[in-house]
Amino acid sequence: MTTAETTDALGRILAPAAGVRLHRADDDSAWWRHAVIYQIYPRSWADSDGDGVGDLPGITVRLPYLRDLGVDAIWLSPFYTSPQADAGYDVADYRDIDPIFGKLADVDALIEAAHGLCLRVIVDLVPNHSSDEHAWFQSALSTGPGSLERERYVFRDGLGDDGAQPPNNWESVFGGPAWTRVADGQWYLHLFDPKQPDFNWENPEVRAEFESILRYWLDRGVDGFRVDVAHGLIKAEGLPDWDEPLHMLGDADGVDHDHGGKHPPMWDQDGVHEVYREWRRVLNSYNPVDTPGHDPAHDRVLCAEAWVDSPERAARYVRADEMHQAFNFDFLQAPWRASDLLESIEDSLAAGDAVGAPTTWVLSNHDVVRHASRLGLPVGERRPNGIGIGDPQPDAALGLQRARAATTLMLALPGSAYLYQGEELGLPDSTDMPDEARQDPTWERSGHEERGRDGCRVPMPWEGDAPSYGFGPSDRTWLPQPEIYGSLAVDRQRGVAGSTLELYRALLAARRDLRLGSGSLSRIDGYGDDVVALVNAADGRASVQVLVNLGVGAVPVPEGWEVLIASGPATADGQLPTDTAVWLRPAE
Ligand code: GLC
């Protein structure tokens, strides 16, 4: 690290005391290094036919909303043929569309419409497991032990004289054992639901099949893939027992788990990286690098969903010959304390820089309590996997205030960022959904201990006064919408000064204009321990200070700077209130 610039391009003083530089400006020609990508959860974004489940034609019609919001790309959670045992993350046919979402022609139309609006399209790829209704698994069942078909999955004989004990003691992420016994007595592995058998990635046939699936979607024009459970494909040899909890998705708590120095045998094995090197070669073949005609604007990309222990482990997925992006779950899980946020930002940027990769910020997705609710829970406590009736409830107003500040911080940082549908409206989780309405397999599989992820998956409100708040033409929604969603609907916020929607639009527009996604970042010292103070100031560009006040008292805005955007009511007396963030620029 070196000392940061102390003046901006015009020679004006940057800050009370410019501290160390955390990251140097990047070349911004590669779109994925700084893109803001909006996650659409197809079941819950827009329903065109009134059956209560969102669909592809619904998405296509609503795409102009995203152009106006100011994002660069969309990521679609799975829309493939699926019995929907895990909301589509149980794929029965990787090359076709589930009828609840539409037809293949609807994806083509969606991709074309998105590209026409300058929005890139990233689709979800689920390589760790298929559905048990996938043709391969069905033939593995019918051909029996020892068959080549069984080699595509992880079948084993059981333990004990009669083989009635599972092959090892692994638990599934959703609760209960990770093994299910089939009629002929063998067991198959499923790290998730029994309807999600794990593939055997040691088998070259599985690898060849997924390369073919990648090409299938690249040929249809997609710009990249978000890779589901990217850290799970390869398991440790011999499938050794593991006595610790699984720590993935909703049971993480923001604490580093060193498992007494042991490494979980089902996660983050070295062998996964060879798979991604192969995939990178496939993607690069669509836009050959190191050739005179290479235009990074046409790069196709891979983004890892890898819940690993540290930014350093995550950075292994984005080495130059592997993926392009990996979600920064360390940042997502950082407690709402200045020191924790700063440490996460510094460590993530350092880890990414060490391998030449951007950092991929994210605060919410379809697997975690939305940040507008999460940040309204007591700081430093375990992050719950869903909130329901009878659970401690978040402080909604505080959560929203902090969520707006958190996003204001995130969008000032260099790197790429993912937004989850509805966060631009400040949507909270549904925290009082009747348990009978729950659909996440976690609720049943955990013996009703974990509520699961339905609370963040509730259909979007578009119009405050319409049935289903404008989600579709009928009043049907596959999960009930909380009443508060009506007052947070898009039409209640569009054009309303101070609304969360207008805050996001302003942040995204300024981020783009000022090229913050490819800027350099320095820490600013002198504000005290409860303030995150950073400056994004690449050579020759306007500098932007971002201040977040996490302390109890107000913090004075520095002389010579004016507020460009504030996450909450900006005070006239030049003070930054608690749980508020601002972007500042040098005063004219
Ligand atoms: C990923 C998905 C999650 C799904 C799981 C199993 O973590 O994001 O929704 O349940 O993988 O596919």
List keywords for this structure.
eight-stranded parallel β-sheet; alpha/beta; TIM Barrel; single chain; 588 residues; six-stranded antiparallel β-sheet; Oligo-1,6-glucosidase, domain 2; Immunoglobulin-like; 14 helices; binds alpha-D-glucopyranose
Please give a structural write-up.
The protein is α/β, with parallel strands linked by helices and 588 residues long. It is built from 14 helices and 21 strands. α5 links the parallel β10 and β11 (301-304). The chain binds alpha-D-glucopyranose. The site of alpha-D-glucopyranose has 10 residues, from loops.
Any chance you could write out the topology, listing elements then pairs?
Elements lengths: L16 E7 L12 E5 L15 H14 L3 E4 L3 E2 L11 E5 L6 H13 L3 E6 L9 H9 L11 E2 L22 E3 L5 E3 L14 H16 L4 E4 L44 H13 L16 E4 L6 H5 L9 E2 L2 H5 L4 H18 L4 E3 L8 H4 L21 H15 L5 E5 L20 H5 L38 H4 L2 H4 L6 H14 L7 E5 L5 E6 L7 E6 L5 E2 L4 E6 L8 E2 L3 E7 L2
Parallel strand pairs: 2-3, 2-14, 3-6, 6-10, 10-11, 11-12, 13-14
Antiparallel strand pairs: 1-15, 4-5, 7-9, 8-9, 15-16, 16-17, 17-21, 18-20, 19-21
Helix pairs in contact: 1-2, 4-5
The structure holds alpha-D-glucopyranose.
Alpha-D-glucopyranose binds next to loops.
